[in-house]
Design a protein that fits this description.
The chain is an alpha+beta fold. The chain folds into 2 domains: 98 residues, Nucleic acid-binding proteins (OB fold (Dihydrolipoamide Acetyltransferase, E2P), Beta Barrel), CATH 2.40.50.140; 301 residues, BirA Bifunctional Protein, domain 2 (2-Layer Sandwich), CATH 3.30.930.10. Helix content is 30%, strand content 25%. The chain is built from 13 helices and 16 strands. The strands form 3 sheets. An 8-stranded mixed sheet has the order 6-10-11-16-15-14-13-12, sandwiched between helices. It has a 5-stranded mixed β-barrel with strand order 1-2-3-5-4. Strands 7-9-8 form a 3-stranded antiparallel sheet, with no helix packed on it. The longest helix has 23 residues. It is elongated and about 85 Å long. The chain binds 4-amino-1,4-dioxobutan-2-aminium adenosine-5'-monophosphate and magnesium ion.
Length: 436
């Protein structure tokens, strides 16, 4: 008897197979029981007819509890026209083995009724089994696949940057400090500085891994541990990486709308708004962004970074991702290249997702100037001795180069149309939560 996964049932029409999974739900109408079984690849309806199985099997099925682990055997058949069952196939069950019967006195904690978000997050290890969470994390998986294949096809080399680092990349306010034998280390905020070193060795590189920020803010866009993909390209300008960012985003959207339709439907995502994403994206300068915001009633003034609300208001003016470039250099990290036309501005870019999901990409052109870099490291009160290796990149064949970082969870949240990034990662870490 072949043991198969539910997503393969269409290849076994009329055949007897075994499926190993969990009971999602069941209902009985006297002589017939309908089971919905899930195995991680899909849902399958099993039909148990009282007259076709032994009394003991029928009794066992009647008493089955939600999320009991089971093995069912039976004949796969196409669902007759006019009848409904997930996936369009069902199984006439001939045998059922219970692997573990969930104790009815201590039932599976998550039922179809409404639960509060804190309860669900406390039970994240079990919540992952529900259809919405399953759909979100399948989409995350496909987004990761599309990102990797995008860079691999463009001949980028993957560089795995370290997680323990001696110094900050993105400012000292949200660093996680850890004891590292006799020294202090910081959990990486970004792989960028290491990617810059690698770009001088390989030309086009990218890192893709977890990054950490001790974010004290409790917003729907902030995690303390999140995944970032960071390309870095030797001899690329700001304009070059803008095009790269646009291509990457459109590639992700095309991949998801092609391969994740069932998941998007489970999430009731407006697919048309994703399919309408096209390059080139609208582009405005920081200066224009400030003027637009002020005209819309925001109190923001020139020189401030844009807050979450500002980003939402701005992005709502467009139904495409919005590119905002050339922020005041003082609001940005130490490594930014000044704009030669106005050195008060940085050659940098943020990409804001539509539908209020905020900044999904931040990046820009890196300064090539050793002296300026030393001054800015000092000004940002960073320990220059820990940056000597980085300064070597300007001593030994300095080169113009650019790159960006894209926050995976924010992209997943946007694509899935979910409110909060905490559902976009299997086990979210936020200021108030690092369990389970
Ligand atoms: O804008 P950020 O801070 O840029 C950097 O770290 C650069 N060193 C990247 C580079 O140029 N290689 O972060 C990049 C992106 C943001 O646009 C956002 O999408 C995401 O990372 N991000 C977060 N996502 C979730 N939770 C947080 N606390 C995040 N902080 C940043
Ligand atoms: Mg940023």
């Amino acid at each position: 008897m072949p043991s198969i996964c539910i997503n393969q049932v269409k290849n076994f029409n009329g055949k007897s197979v075994t499926i190993q999974g969990w009971l999602y739900r069941h209902r009985s109408s006297g002589k017939i029981i309908f089971l919905i079984v899930r195995d991680g690849t899909g849902l399958l309806q099993g039909i148990v007819l009282k007259d076709s199985v032994s009394t003991s099997i029928f009794q066992r099925v009647t008493e089955l509890t939600q999320e009991s682990s089971i093995e069912i055997t039976g004949i796969i058949q196409k669902v007759p026209q006019g009848q409904k069952a997930p996936g369009g196939y069902e199984m006439e069950v001939t045998n059922l083995k219970t692997i573990q019967h969930v104790d009815p006195k201590n039932p599976f904690p998550i039922s179809p009724k409404e639960h509060g978000i804190e309860f669900l997050l406390d039970h994240r290890h079990l919540w992952l089994r529900s259809s919405r969470q399953h759909a979100i994390l399948r989409i995350r998986h496909q987004i990761i696949r599309s990102i990797r294949s995008f860079f691999d096809k463009k001949d980028f080399t993957l560089i795995d940057t370290p997680i323990f680092t001696p110094a900050a990349c993105e400012g000292t306010t949200n660093l996680f400090e850890v004891d590292y034998f006799d020294e202090k280390a910081y959990l990486t905020q970004s792989g960028q500085l290491y990617n810059e070193a690698a770009a001088a060795a390989f030309g086009k590189v990218y890192s893709f891994g977890p990054t950490f920020r001790a974010e004290k803010s409790k917003t729907r866009r902030h995690l303390t541990e999140f995944w970032m993909v960071e390309p870095e390209v030797a001899y690329a300008t700001l304009d070059d990486i803008l095009i790269l960012a646009e291509d990457l985003i459109v590639n992700i959207i095309n991949h998801v709308t092609q391969y994740c339709r069932p998941e998007l439907e489970i999430l009731q995502r407006n697919i048309a708004s994703l399919e309408g994403i096209r390059t080139p994206f609208p582009k405005i300068t920081y200066e224009e962004a400030i003027k637009t915001l002020q005209s819309l009633g925001s109190k923001v003034v020139w020189g401030q970074d844009l807050g979450g609300t500002d980003e939402t208001i701005l992005a709502q003016q467009f139904n495409q991702p919005l590119i905002v470039h050339r922020y005041p250099i003082e609001t940005k990290a130490f490594y930014m290249e000044p704009d030669p036309i106005n050195p008060k501005l940085a050659l940098c870019v943020d990409v804001l997702a539509p539908e209020g999901c905020g900044e999904i990409i931040g990046g820009g052109q890196r300064t090539t100037n050793l002296e300026l870099l030393c001054q800015r490291i000092e000004k940002h009160q960073l320990p220059i001795e820990n940056f000597q290796w980085y300064l070597d990149l300007r001593r030994y064949g300095t080169f113009s180069h650019s790159g960006f970082g894209m926050g995976l969870e924010r992209v997943v949240a946007w694509v899935c149309g979910i409110e909060h990034v905490r559902e976009a990662i299997p086990f979210p870490r936020t200021i108030y939560r690092m369990k389970p």
